[in-house]
Write a structure and sequence with these properties.
alpha+beta; MdcG_N; MdcG_C; Holo-ACP_synthase; nucleotidyltransferase; 11 strands; transferase; globular
Length: 219
Protein backbone atom coordinates (compact mmCIF):
# COMPACT_ATOMS: atom_id res chain seq x y z
CA UNK A 1 0.00 0.00 0.00
CA UNK A 2 1.79 3.13 -1.18
CA UNK A 3 2.54 5.65 1.54
CA UNK A 4 1.48 3.39 4.40
CA UNK A 5 3.77 1.39 6.66
CA UNK A 6 1.77 -0.65 9.16
CA UNK A 7 3.29 -0.90 12.63
CA UNK A 8 3.20 -3.52 15.37
CA UNK A 9 -0.34 -4.31 16.58
CA UNK A 10 -1.94 -2.91 13.40
CA UNK A 11 -4.32 -5.16 11.50
CA UNK A 12 -3.90 -5.89 7.80
CA UNK A 13 -5.89 -7.68 5.13
CA UNK A 14 -4.01 -9.48 2.38
CA UNK A 15 -4.91 -9.60 -1.30
CA UNK A 16 -5.92 -12.76 -3.13
CA UNK A 17 -2.39 -13.05 -4.57
CA UNK A 18 -0.73 -12.78 -1.14
CA UNK A 19 1.18 -16.06 -1.56
CA UNK A 20 3.05 -14.57 -4.53
CA UNK A 21 4.45 -11.96 -2.13
CA UNK A 22 5.90 -14.37 0.44
CA UNK A 23 9.44 -13.47 1.47
CA UNK A 24 9.93 -16.66 3.52
CA UNK A 25 8.45 -20.05 2.57
CA UNK A 26 5.65 -21.70 4.55
CA UNK A 27 5.29 -25.42 5.11
CA UNK A 28 2.22 -26.96 3.38
CA UNK A 29 0.08 -27.16 6.53
CA UNK A 30 0.69 -23.54 7.48
CA UNK A 31 0.15 -22.42 3.89
CA UNK A 32 -3.22 -24.22 3.85
CA UNK A 33 -4.37 -22.65 7.16
CA UNK A 34 -3.28 -19.16 6.17
CA UNK A 35 -4.96 -19.51 2.78
CA UNK A 36 -8.24 -20.59 4.38
CA UNK A 37 -8.06 -17.70 6.84
CA UNK A 38 -7.43 -15.14 4.09
CA UNK A 39 -10.19 -16.56 1.90
CA UNK A 40 -12.67 -15.96 4.75
CA UNK A 41 -11.71 -12.29 4.62
CA UNK A 42 -10.08 -12.34 8.04
CA UNK A 43 -7.16 -10.05 8.94
CA UNK A 44 -3.69 -10.61 10.37
CA UNK A 45 -1.71 -8.61 12.93
CA UNK A 46 1.60 -6.88 12.38
CA UNK A 47 4.28 -8.27 14.67
CA UNK A 48 7.81 -7.20 15.60
CA UNK A 49 10.09 -7.04 12.59
CA UNK A 50 13.46 -8.78 12.46
CA UNK A 51 16.60 -6.66 12.37
CA UNK A 52 17.59 -7.65 8.78
CA UNK A 53 14.09 -6.97 7.36
CA UNK A 54 13.73 -4.33 4.68
CA UNK A 55 11.25 -1.47 4.81
CA UNK A 56 9.14 -3.08 2.08
CA UNK A 57 8.61 -6.25 4.13
CA UNK A 58 6.27 -7.16 6.99
CA UNK A 59 6.18 -9.81 9.68
CA UNK A 60 2.60 -10.86 10.40
CA UNK A 61 0.97 -13.08 12.97
CA UNK A 62 -2.08 -15.30 12.89
CA UNK A 63 -3.42 -16.61 16.18
CA UNK A 64 -5.95 -19.39 15.72
CA UNK A 65 -8.83 -19.98 18.15
CA UNK A 66 -7.02 -23.08 19.48
CA UNK A 67 -4.11 -20.78 20.47
CA UNK A 68 -1.74 -21.92 17.72
CA UNK A 69 0.43 -19.04 16.49
CA UNK A 70 1.44 -18.84 12.85
CA UNK A 71 3.99 -16.43 11.40
CA UNK A 72 4.19 -14.90 7.93
CA UNK A 73 6.90 -12.89 6.22
CA UNK A 74 5.51 -11.01 3.20
CA UNK A 75 6.22 -8.05 0.98
CA UNK A 76 4.37 -4.87 1.90
CA UNK A 77 2.71 -5.07 -1.52
CA UNK A 78 0.65 -8.06 -0.29
CA UNK A 79 -1.35 -5.71 1.99
CA UNK A 80 -4.60 -4.26 0.67
CA UNK A 81 -6.08 -2.74 3.83
CA UNK A 82 -4.80 -1.50 7.21
CA UNK A 83 -6.67 -0.88 10.46
CA UNK A 84 -5.33 0.33 13.82
CA UNK A 85 -5.83 -1.76 16.96
CA UNK A 86 -9.47 -1.46 18.04
CA UNK A 87 -10.37 0.82 20.91
CA UNK A 88 -11.70 -0.55 24.18
CA UNK A 89 -14.98 1.18 23.37
CA UNK A 90 -15.23 -0.80 20.11
CA UNK A 91 -14.12 -4.09 21.60
CA UNK A 92 -16.32 -4.08 24.68
CA UNK A 93 -19.28 -5.11 22.52
CA UNK A 94 -17.76 -8.57 22.21
CA UNK A 95 -16.55 -8.86 25.83
CA UNK A 96 -18.34 -10.92 28.51
CA UNK A 97 -20.87 -9.17 30.71
CA UNK A 98 -18.67 -9.75 33.76
CA UNK A 99 -15.92 -7.60 32.17
CA UNK A 100 -18.09 -4.59 31.39
CA UNK A 101 -17.59 -2.70 34.65
CA UNK A 102 -13.80 -3.05 34.42
CA UNK A 103 -13.80 -1.90 30.80
CA UNK A 104 -15.98 1.09 31.70
CA UNK A 105 -13.41 2.10 34.31
CA UNK A 106 -10.57 1.71 31.77
CA UNK A 107 -12.44 3.92 29.31
CA UNK A 108 -13.05 6.49 32.05
CA UNK A 109 -9.35 6.45 32.94
CA UNK A 110 -8.45 7.10 29.30
CA UNK A 111 -10.90 10.00 29.21
CA UNK A 112 -9.38 11.61 32.30
CA UNK A 113 -5.87 11.29 30.83
CA UNK A 114 -7.00 12.25 27.31
CA UNK A 115 -5.73 8.91 25.96
CA UNK A 116 -7.29 6.64 23.37
CA UNK A 117 -7.17 3.18 24.93
CA UNK A 118 -6.79 0.34 22.43
CA UNK A 119 -6.64 -3.43 22.75
CA UNK A 120 -4.78 -6.35 21.25
CA UNK A 121 -4.78 -10.05 22.03
CA UNK A 122 -7.84 -12.30 22.29
CA UNK A 123 -10.41 -9.52 22.71
CA UNK A 124 -9.16 -7.80 19.57
CA UNK A 125 -9.01 -11.06 17.59
CA UNK A 126 -12.61 -11.84 18.53
CA UNK A 127 -13.81 -8.40 17.48
CA UNK A 128 -11.87 -8.27 14.21
CA UNK A 129 -12.74 -11.79 13.05
CA UNK A 130 -16.12 -12.67 14.55
CA UNK A 131 -14.55 -15.94 15.74
CA UNK A 132 -14.68 -16.95 19.42
CA UNK A 133 -11.29 -16.42 21.06
CA UNK A 134 -12.11 -15.47 24.64
CA UNK A 135 -11.93 -17.99 27.43
CA UNK A 136 -12.90 -17.61 31.11
CA UNK A 137 -9.28 -16.84 32.09
CA UNK A 138 -8.41 -14.61 29.13
CA UNK A 139 -6.61 -11.34 29.86
CA UNK A 140 -7.49 -7.94 28.46
CA UNK A 141 -4.41 -6.64 26.64
CA UNK A 142 -4.49 -2.84 26.64
CA UNK A 143 -2.48 -0.31 24.61
CA UNK A 144 -1.73 3.24 25.77
CA UNK A 145 0.39 5.95 24.16
CA UNK A 146 0.92 8.71 26.77
CA UNK A 147 2.52 11.93 25.54
CA UNK A 148 4.16 12.87 28.87
CA UNK A 149 5.94 10.95 31.60
CA UNK A 150 3.59 12.43 34.19
CA UNK A 151 0.73 10.82 32.27
CA UNK A 152 2.57 7.50 32.41
CA UNK A 153 2.72 7.76 36.18
CA UNK A 154 -0.95 8.70 36.46
CA UNK A 155 -1.84 5.88 34.08
CA UNK A 156 0.01 3.25 36.11
CA UNK A 157 -1.61 4.47 39.33
CA UNK A 158 -5.04 4.35 37.69
CA UNK A 159 -4.57 0.89 36.19
CA UNK A 160 -3.49 -0.56 39.52
CA UNK A 161 -6.60 0.94 41.13
CA UNK A 162 -8.90 -0.47 38.44
CA UNK A 163 -7.23 -3.88 38.75
CA UNK A 164 -7.84 -3.92 42.50
CA UNK A 165 -11.52 -3.08 42.00
CA UNK A 166 -12.13 -5.70 39.32
CA UNK A 167 -10.38 -8.97 40.09
CA UNK A 168 -12.75 -10.83 37.73
CA UNK A 169 -10.47 -10.01 34.78
CA UNK A 170 -6.73 -9.43 34.53
CA UNK A 171 -5.76 -6.17 32.84
CA UNK A 172 -2.50 -6.59 30.96
CA UNK A 173 -0.93 -4.80 28.02
CA UNK A 174 1.65 -2.23 27.05
CA UNK A 175 2.62 1.41 27.27
CA UNK A 176 3.81 2.66 23.88
CA UNK A 177 6.90 4.88 23.94
CA UNK A 178 7.62 7.94 21.77
CA UNK A 179 10.37 6.10 19.86
CA UNK A 180 8.08 3.24 18.83
CA UNK A 181 9.07 0.83 21.60
CA UNK A 182 6.69 -0.71 24.12
CA UNK A 183 6.88 -1.91 27.70
CA UNK A 184 4.52 -4.05 29.76
CA UNK A 185 2.63 -1.70 32.06
CA UNK A 186 2.72 -4.14 34.95
CA UNK A 187 6.50 -4.40 34.70
CA UNK A 188 6.83 -0.63 34.39
CA UNK A 189 4.70 -0.13 37.51
CA UNK A 190 7.34 -1.99 39.54
CA UNK A 191 9.85 0.75 38.64
CA UNK A 192 12.76 -1.63 38.02
CA UNK A 193 16.18 -0.17 37.26
CA UNK A 194 16.27 -2.19 34.02
CA UNK A 195 13.19 -2.95 31.93
CA UNK A 196 12.69 -5.01 28.78
CA UNK A 197 11.57 -2.93 25.79
CA UNK A 198 10.00 -4.40 22.67
CA UNK A 199 10.94 -2.25 19.71
CA UNK A 200 9.69 -2.14 16.12
CA UNK A 201 12.72 -4.35 15.33
CA UNK A 202 13.97 -6.60 18.08
CA UNK A 203 13.92 -6.14 21.84
CA UNK A 204 16.47 -4.98 24.38
CA UNK A 205 16.90 -4.03 28.06
CA UNK A 206 16.92 -0.32 28.89
CA UNK A 207 17.07 1.71 32.06
CA UNK A 208 14.05 3.43 33.54
CA UNK A 209 16.01 6.68 33.26
CA UNK A 210 16.38 6.13 29.51
CA UNK A 211 12.63 5.64 29.16
CA UNK A 212 11.83 8.83 31.04
CA UNK A 213 14.23 10.74 28.77
CA UNK A 214 12.18 9.75 25.70
CA UNK A 215 9.36 12.02 26.84
CA UNK A 216 9.44 15.83 26.55
CA UNK A 217 10.65 17.82 29.52
CA UNK A 218 7.91 19.12 31.78
CA UNK A 219 7.91 22.26 33.92
Amino acid sequence: MPGERPVRHDWVSLGADWAEHLRSPLNPDVLRMVTEWQQHGRPFTVTRQDMPDRDDELRLGLTLPDRRHLALHVALSAVVHVLPPPTVHEARSTAPATWQAALEDVIALGTVLDLTVRVFGSLAWQLRTGVTFLRPLSDVDLLFAPARWSDVERLLFGLEAVSRRHSVVRLDGEVLLPDGGAVAWRELALEPEIIWVTGPRGACPRTLKDLRALFPAEP
